[in-house]
Structures are given as structure tokens and as C-alpha cells.
Amino acid sequence: MKLFLRVAIILLPLSTLLLAQNTQLKYKIIQGSDTIGWMQLDKTVLDNKLDMSLISEIKTQAIFDIKVYSKELSMYENGKLLYSSQFRKTNGNIKVDKQTRFVTNKYIIAENGKTKDLAIASITTNLLSLYFNEPVGITTVFCDNHECFVNLTKTADGGYKVKFPNGDNNCYYYSAGICNKIKISHTFYSAQIILTR
After folding, report:
1. Residue-range domain boundaries for the chain
2. Do residues 26 and 197 lie in contact, with contact meaning Cβ atoms separated by under 8 Å?
């Protein structure tokens, strides 16, 4: 009997992991004809909880070498964002370290040792969601970086364009419901992110 209990206790966490649905996506980041970086996204679904993460690294050169490391995380429960974080380091210097939490009935943003309230009652889709699900019928998506909802419009070539408050935009393209390409059009550069699996 004791042996049975020990085996059951050992196998319980394993069975929980087996019940979780995991998806991993890998991308390369291209500027012109050069591959300048990589990106990996992970999604785990267990019961009513959804966790998504993004890690990327870019190495490029303008006047000097530039190395950018980014990490993002989003945690949902019952379809509602409860926590997200953004971390970005450029050439070893931290540029962004931000967390958004749902507390009681509002979102609170923590950044640079300060907190502020976000006047949004519920977030059900943010930019990380766009990698794993084609946004059919969705017209806005939450942008953690800009701390607001941004418009999402269908383009003539079948993509979904997100225009940010600073005028930059990304256009997402899909195959079988998964994002297989992103065209980035920003003020100082353009690039593409291509799914490699």
C-alpha cells in the first residue's frame, strides 16, 4: 500500500503535465536578405489557465553593433488576462521592465519602481495571442507596451494590420490559424519575422 501511495504521489505531477496542451513556435527575424535574430513562443493550456511566453534575440549593426534581448509573458485565467510582463535589454542595458497585474477589479502597471492604475476592466486578447490564433472577428487588441487597445484591420493581401499610437505598424499573416509571417514597418527600420517551426 505504501509503495502504491509513493508511486501515485510521484506520478501525480507527471499526469498534470501530460494533461496540459503545449504549443511551441519558432521564427527567424530577417532584415533585407540577412537573418538578424530568432524568436521562440510557447503556449501552455491547462484547464481554464493559459500561459504564453516569447523570447527573442536580435543582433544587427547600424553605426555600431546592436544586440537586443526580449522576454514577454502573459497569463490568462477563464479568458481574462491576469498578469503580463515585458523585459527588454539593449547592449546589456535594461530598456523595459514592466509588469501588468489584475488586482481586485482593475489592472495595475508596475515600471521603474512606480505603479499606476489602468482604466480597463478586462483584457481578453493581447499581442502575444496573435501568434497562436488568427484574430477572425476581432477589431482591437491590447498592446502591453503602449498600455492601450490598438485597432486591428484586415488588409487586402489577407493580413491583419496593427497600428500603434506612435505610427509604427505590424501586419500578421496566417496559415491554419497560426501566424506564419509578420511584416514590421517601424520609423527607423523594417523587417520580417518568418515561422520556421
Report:
1. 22-195
2. yes
